[in-house]
Here is the input.
Amino acid sequence: MSLRIVVAVKYVPDATGDRHFAEDLTTDRDAVDGLLSELDEYAVEQALQIAEAADDAEVTAVTIGPEDARGAVLKALQMGAAKGVHVEDDALHGTDVIGTSLVLAKAVEHIGFDLVVTGMASTDGTAGVVPALLAERLGVPQVTLLSEVSVAGGKVTGRRDGDVASEELEAALPAVVSVTDQSGEARYPSFKGIMGAKKKPLETLDLSDLGVDPAGVGLGGSWTAVRDATARPPRTAGTIVKDEGEGGRQLAEFLAAQKFI
Amino acid sequence: MAEVLVYVDHVDGAVRKPTLELLTVARRLGEPVAVYLGAGVEGAAEVLGAHGAGRVLAADAPEFAEYLVVPKVDALEAAVKAVGPVAVLVPSSAEGKEVAARLALRLGSGVITDAVDVEAGAEGPVATQSVFAAAFTTRSVVSRGVAVITVKPNAAPVEPVQAAGAVEELAVVFGELATGTRVVSRTARTSSGRPELTEAAIVVSGGRGVNGAENFSVIEALADSLGAAVGASRAAVDAGWYPHSNQVGQTGKSVSPQLYVANGISGAIQHRAGMQTSKTIVAVNKDAEAPIFDLVDYGVVGDLFNVVPQLTEEVKARKG
Ligand SMILES: Cc1cc2nc3c(=O)[nH]c(=O)nc-3n(C[C@H](O)[C@H](O)[C@H](O)COP(=O)(O)OP(=O)(O)OC[C@H]3O[C@@H](n4cnc5c(N)ncnc54)[C@H](O)[C@@H]3O)c2cc1C
Ligand SMILES: Cc1cc2nc3c(=O)[nH]c(=O)nc-3n(C[C@H](O)[C@H](O)[C@H](O)COP(=O)(O)OP(=O)(O)OC[C@H]3O[C@@H](n4cnc5c(N)ncnc54)[C@H](O)[C@@H]3O)c2cc1C
Here is the structure.
């Protein structure tokens, strides 16, 4: 029986750019170039490795976002995913984590799945909760924050390196898995992969295709609301000295003046 | 007065500092009620009571340790039903965020993660977040349901305030999903004996410039002279020089100490995301152009192998 793997990939503003909020206090997506969230590259990589280790498996990449967000799916297809799904709808603008998980759950159900793989967190919202919410919505186990993952015999196992302990986890499929950046380097798309991606199926869906009520998503449907956003004041220029043999002592002098020693 | 649930993060009964900070935050919103899951509530209740928790709802069951996240969500959901709080506060650990999010969904509530401050407001609790690698500060509210908010370490001072800390049994019925993900085994992290990274008042970090696992002793010596925690950049962690649990940054820990000392770290955006809110920042780097110098209160352009040992000696001498 074939293993159906869905990998959730988010399109985010480049973290090395000057990220801003738009007037409605949502992410200003025009100010900076977007890309596939780097942490989701790890998810695509593990999805592909799990598929390669299985007899018969198919990886579908799914994203929710505006027109450009297609770029995230395209990158996943270039890396080796077989199919893509892009959920795009004007009503989605400003959706919170609860709404995002709703739409993702509907999309994943639409595609059909045995395993959902996600990143540990997006590089913009950085909430790190969509995988857990997805599992709650789908009514399947969450096997999250894995630095090592494998699937065999209808089970997913993995290692979760936590704050105070490292845990070996196990759950039966279907399940939602999230992987960390410790799970293994993500592959670069090959030339063949880049050329081949253009021919792979990429389906675009809107909320009505998924039977999602637009009132439950977007800025208006969010269960949280941003009241204001202010740029962090630039730090006042510090003192910089060149070490001419006394650098350590000079630094100690500063720390003492600040009462750290 | 309105009650506020505080989810207790503890290790074998030892309440972790971020939970005590949450009790301070909770008192701004109402009367704190602690929710304690697992064994060892007797000792913990005393500590929680001494920090303002009037009631301590406690449940102990093997499920909390044997299965991932969901049993704790079931318990918190039961606590919310029993108390009817105006807000639920959860420490922003990886697990805390997952527990909070699932709870919020069940309650029909919005969830705010990684708050660095929470204040009472006309529309309910107002949460401050530090976002886009700390380039922006936002203030948000939960606009639907009971506010569920996860709060980062160091968001508030720990303040002793005597309250009853009365233990009450919390009845929990586990749902079907509770036993979905089994914890097959658990290996505790060995303690370095140094302060916990996210809780420390001073953090001394090393990056690629440290150039080898054995050289981290230079960083550790400085940390020990200052009573600090040791951090590392991802480059140092990926090279295998220091454990991942000490990584500071976007995919590591985010720290907000009184003093952050960056040694041989360039200051990439993903590293800054984890330390930019430190009160005072100092750096040692041999490249005068390194972006870390844009953040510092005091910077030394020089070889860390000369500067750091000299600093360590000086700290020791001054401390006598
Ligand atoms: C600065 C900022 C702060 C925010 N704070 C909050 C908040 O406190 N509360 C709140 O409810 N919302 C908040 N949001 C909105 C929230 O981040 C978005 O709704 C987002 O789409 C989902 O959350 P995340 O990006 O944090 O995802 P995370 O939970 O960090 O994402 C984890 C994984 O889920 C998958 N995933 C997430 N989004 C998508 C997507 N659109 N398409 C495909 N896969 C996806 C990816 O695999 C990703 O690696 C915030 C957004 C921003 C930009
Ligand atoms: C999705 C994603 C997540 C990431 N998450 C994190 C994260 O959580 N934390 C993190 O740190 N990074 C993270 N990174 C990596 C980040 O982009 C940088 O690559 C990393 O922070 C660089 O580490 P570094 O400053 O130690 O190394 P480098 O950038 O190589 O800098 C080394 C510095 O040491 C100086 N130096 C060298 N020798 C000496 C000497 N003898 N004395 C003094 N100075 C010296 C050099 O001048 C240089 O400035 C992430 C990247 C991505 C894409």
User: Anything to note?
Assistant: The first strand of chain B starts at residue 3 and ends at 7. Chain B touches chain A through 91 residues (CB under 8 Å).
